[in-house]
Amino acid sequence: MSAQSKEWILHSVIFSLKHERGSEEERRFLEDGKRILTSIPTVMNFQVYKQVSAKNEYDHGFAMEFASQADYDAYNEHPLHVQFVNERWKTEVEKFLEIDYTKND
């Protein structure tokens, strides 16, 4: 693992979609999310996750890293992120939980 600055942020969101599991709409949302969000310059190490535990009510996850708070802020304000949230997230996501971490040292 590479050295990370004290400003490093791990941004993750777990979510369930309104679409049926395994549907074409689900696949398209996950692929489009990855394609669109990874095109934002400050996003690093973007990952798409699928839930495997029956103890969790969410089906999917997106996680990404930012080198600094400024990079994270730039991502949140980036036109592609704003557009994805307004056009896709708000209409296709049923529920979600967003978690943002930095190292505790």
List key phrases describing it.
Alpha-Beta Plaits, 105 residues, 30% strand, four-stranded antiparallel beta sheet, 4 strands, alpha+beta
Task: Write a structural description.
It is a single chain. With 105 residues, the chain is α+β, with helices and mostly antiparallel strands. It has one domain: Alpha-Beta Plaits (2-Layer Sandwich). 36% of the residues lie in helices and 30% in strands. It is built from three helices and four strands, in the order βαββααβ. The protein has helices spanning 24-38, 69-77, 79-92, and strands at 9-17, 44-50, 60-66, 93-101. The longest helix is centred in the first third of the chain and has 15 residues, at 24-38. The chain is globular and about 40 Å long. The two termini are 16 Å apart. The model has no long low-confidence stretch (mean pLDDT 94). Homodimer.
Spans of at least 5 consecutive residues with low confidence: none
- For the largest sheet, list the strands in their spatial order: 2-3-1-4
Second CATH tier, the architecture:
2-Layer Sandwich
Number of domains: 1
Radius of gyration: 14 Å
List the helices and strands and how they pair.
Layout: E1 9-17, H1 24-38, E2 44-50, E3 60-66, H2 69-77, H3 79-92, E4 93-101
Antiparallel strand pairs: 1-3, 1-4, 2-3
Helix pairs in contact: 1-3
